[in-house]
Specification:
The protein is 44% helix and 20% strand. It is an alpha+beta fold and 191 residues long. The strands form two sheets. The protein has a three-stranded antiparallel β-sheet with strand order 1-2-3. Strands 4-5 form a two-stranded antiparallel ribbon. α1 packs parallel to α3 and α3 packs across α5. It is globular. It starts with a strand and ends with a helix.
């Protein structure tokens, strides 16, 4: 889900697993050029890891990349949406928190980002689904006074619809900007 520097040459890595939910692990030496972790710790890689549960930290000891989505880097908008999805997942989940089939939702959304012409719809749908799964969605009856009816219908559709149907939606620039404002307010609401 992401990482940040931790000490001299280490990184603090944010992972999600079906078994542990969101976890934070230390990758010793990961910032060094010749690290055994180089290339594996990319955001949104699917990996198999070996962990040591120490008294203060969880230490990453081994990592193997199972799936990567490096082709997302070929389209800026798709890469931007994938990074947004990772950041929002990392922000909205507490350590140890799980969501049924989150890995399937992430993988499906990343696969759609590779082929879609509208990556923002994929990331909006992803965000709606995780916010709903975590119980963070505001009651649409309470937001009805600041969200137009057509946008409420759109939000309901992307919350429950399939990505293959959602990506068929065509939004004008104005509509896309309005939806972005709505999501900014939603994130402030849970924030």
């Amino acid at each position: 889900l992401g990482h940040k520097r931790f000490g001299e040459g280490d990184k603090l890595i944010f992972l999600y697993s079906n078994e542990f939910g969101k976890i934070k692990v230390v990758a010793r030496g990961a910032s060094k050029v010749a690290s055994k972790f180089t290339g594996h710790l990319e955001t949104m890689n699917f990996c198999r890891v070996a962990l040591y549960f120490g008294p203060r930290n969880i230490i990453l000891t081994e990592i193997v990349t199972l799936k990567n989505f490096k082709n997302l880097r070929d389209k800026f908008e798709s890469l931007q949406s994938a990074i947004f999805m990772a950041e929002m997942t990392n922000k909205l989940f507490l350590e140890g928190q799980k969501l049924d089939n989150l890995l399937g939702l992430i993988e499906g959304s990343l696969r759609h980002l590779l082929i879609t012409k509208n990556p923002s719809l994929v990331s909006y749908s992803y965000l709606m689904k995780i916010m709903d799964g975590l119980g963070l969605m505001p009651d649409f009856r309470e937001v009805g006074d600041w969200v137009e009816e057509k946008y409420l219908k759109f939000l309901q559709f992307i919350k429950s619809g399939e990505l293959s149907e959602i990506e068929k939606i065509s939004l004008s620039c104005h509509e896309d900007q309005e939806i972005e404002k709505i999501f900014d307010r939603f994130l402030a609401y849970v924030g």
